[in-house]
Amino acid sequence: MQRAFVLCAVVALSECLFQVPLEKGKTARETLEEQGLWEEYRLKYPYNPMAKFEDSFAVGGESMTNDADLAYYGIISIGTPPQSFKVIFDTGSSNLWIPSIYCNSPACNNHDKFNPSTSSTFRNNGHALSIHYGTGSMTGFLGYDTVTVGGLAVKNQIIGLSETEAPFMQYMRADGILGLAYPRLAASGATPVFDNMMSENLVNQDMFSVYLSSDTQRGSVVTFGGIDPNHYSGSISWIPLSRELYWQITVDSVTVNGEVVACNGGCQAIVDTGTSLIVGPQSSISNINSKVGATNHNGDYLVNCNSIAQMPDVIFHIHGETFTIPGSAYVRQSHSYGCRTGFGNGGDNLWILGDVFIRQYYAIFSRAQNMVGLATAR
Fold first, then answer.
1. Where are the domains of the chain?
2. Which residue intervals define the domain Peptidase A1 in the entry (predicted)?
3. Where do the DSSP E strands lie in 150-201?
4. Residue 365 β-bridge partners
5. Beta bridge partners of 21
6. How far apart are CA 166 and CA 184, in angstroms?
7. Regarding the domain delimited by 230-377, which CATH topology (the fold level of the hierarchy) does it fall under?
8. C-alpha–C-alpha distance, residues 59 and 50, integer Å
9. Are strands 152-164 and 96-99 parallel, antiparallel or unpaired?
């Protein structure tokens, strides 16, 4: 099990970064493909990456989607004595929830479950929680306990404890979700974990950053309280948020070989660690995939695995800067399904810059300035 660690500057031990290593495990899709169940599953539970960004879900119940390609998770602990859980650090939602011992859904039975009765610091909130998925829902209740993230102990943190879970969670490695978006998005008025870190002065700077390794299963990390210069090169481009609910920014255009292929005149995009692909409107995604030589096969855009090196760059123009995604970054290889691009169909207008984008660009999320910083990952 990977352990959290702390980096402190030599000149001032108070200047510390609190880090949680992220494991890149097998995705739910890979597990289903190995079992020969993927085609049946995708028809029964169609992928809806935009579900959690619909305004109807932005208040009341939190919403998550069935992203079968999610791979990154880190370990946190809850309670006294601590109980450990694997969670997805999700900048597209705001609640923390994990399975409870009161859940008997198949999705809970193969995950670690929290036992409130064995924690001396647990308090029941008395309120129910409902989290909406693209393919179902999670129901449960709320409680308070000490949550330790990257060596930071957040006391009296409100957490969701599931009693039922949607079927797709059965195939995911992570036990639950730790949301890192704005508090206005949180279900039941819950204060997000990072907001409590800030209010309790546990972090030196009101920011966190995410590095997703593209080469190995190890090396990915989420950093609380600052920026780790070991994970990027060059300068940081600071982009103001266009909406302080998600980490939402304005994309000026998307080009391939100098031609505008999407976002002509600008569009809105959310930088989201809780989505695996780059997702956009179907017409725009179809246009991008066509320009890079991909063909649509049941919703997957397939390419020749031998042509990756010759495939054109896809360039996102954001706040006067260019962010290049080469073929080697946007093509994913599957043992069962060959090579497919990381550009997926989504909603009518909104884009999601998910892990395919973040693997190329170290992402910094500043609550102090309400900006996203992007720098070339290394």
1. 5-210, 230-377
2. 72-375
3. 152-164, 176-179
4. 208, 372
5. 221
6. 25
7. Cathepsin D, subunit A; domain 1 (2.40.70)
8. 15
9. parallel
DSSP strands (E only) in 79-114: 83-90, 96-99
What pTM value is reported for the model? 0.89
Catalytic pick from 67, 69, 145, 272?
272
What CA–CA distance (Å, rounded) separates 7 from 223?
10
Q: Which of 289, 279, 274, 247 is nearest to 349 (CA)?
A: 279
- The single residue of 90, 175, 300, 355 carrying the catalytic annotation is 90
Buried b (16+ CB within 10 A) or exposed e, 245-277: bbbbbbbbbbbbeeeebbbeeebbbbbbbbbbb
Residue 291, phi then psi, degrees to nearest 5: -70, -30
Asked about 272 being catalytic, the answer comes back as yes
Q: Which CATH superfamily is domain 5-210 in?
A: Acid Proteases (2.40.70.10)
pLDDT, tens only, 151-166: 999 999 999 999 999 8
CA 150 to chain centre: 17
Judge contact between 65 and 133, C-beta under 8 A. Answer: yes
Backbone dihedral region for residue 286 (phi beyond 0: left; psi -120 to 50: alpha; all else: beta) = alpha
**Sequence letter at residue 262:** A
Residue with tokens 């910083």: 373
Q: Say if strands 267-271 and 351-353 run parallel, antiparallel, or are unpaired.
A: parallel
Q: How far is CA 75 from CA 58, 147, 197, 349, in A?
A: 27, 11, 17, 34
Please compute, for residue 138, the number of CA atoms within 13 A of its CA located in the half-sphere on the CB side.
34
The string of pLDDT tens digits covering residues 176-233 is 989 999 999 887 888 999 999 999 999 999 999 999 987 656 689 999 999 999 999 9
Give the amino acid at 182. Y
Give Cβ neighbours of residue 20 (< 8 Å, ≥ 6 apart): 4, 74, 75, 76, 89, 149, 150, 221, 222, 224
* Chain CA centroid to CA 329, Å: 17
- Matching fold, domains 5-210 and 230-377: yes
Pull the structure tokens for residue 337. 């399904």
